[in-house]
Specification:
single chain; 8-stranded antiparallel sheet; 2 helices
Length: 179
């Protein structure tokens, strides 16, 4: 399918770029997005990617950072029944350095029930959330890359009419530092 072809996309004014399928649309064409985020969606599958630049969380350890951010997302989105499915230990990304200090990367996958927008709990969808945390300590930044994949679309959800009840596997992305 041509919509699954990867396309390189500039993020944050071209400071970095990434590649993922063409089927993902830039949300800034639809609504306002905060400057510290880049958001892409595939409305036909109710999948999304969010790239976020946050102040570095000094109080959070590297090994637990991805889980900490995933649990924070679950609380922020009023997610019910959050379950941590897997997590990776933090590893140094020697190919991604600032001066001589490598970034630290950790990942986690969770599942929870959430409602879309202003819908109530009776319309919750079950989603899987994939989160990667790239810790750029020398520049005081935590980069979050989050992918949302519906597992079960509730018939009462606003997504039900366009997606149905079956989801598709989420796709991989690649990140490139520019400059």
């Amino acid at each position: 399918m041509s919509s699954d072809f990867l396309s390189e996309r500039p993020l944050f004014g071209g400071a970095i770029s990434t590649a993922f399928p063409l089927r993902f649309q830039d949300v800034t064409n639809i609504r306002q997005v905060p400057d510290h985020q880049e958001v892409f969606v595939d409305p036909a599958r109710d999948e999304s990617f969010i790239f976020e630049l946050l102040d570095y969380k000094h109080e959070v350890g590297d090994d637990g950072s991805s889980v900490w951010f995933l649990q924070d997302l679950a609380i922020e989105q009023d997610g019910e029944g959050f379950t941590l499915l897997e997590q990776s230990p933090a590893v140094e990304a020697t190919g991604l350095c600032y001066r001589t200090i490598p970034a630290v990367v950790a990942t986690a996958v969770g599942q929870m029930a959430v409602s879309k927008g202003r819908q109530g709990r009776e319309a919750q969808n079950i989603i899987k959330v994939y989160l990667a945390n790239i810790r750029l300590k020398e520049v005081g930044t935590d980069v979050l890359i989050t992918a949302y994949e519906p597992i079960l679309i509730n018939p009462l959800s606003e997504s039900a009419s366009t997606v149905g009840r079956i989801s598709y596997p989420c796709c991989a992305i690649w990140i490139h530092a520019n400059g």
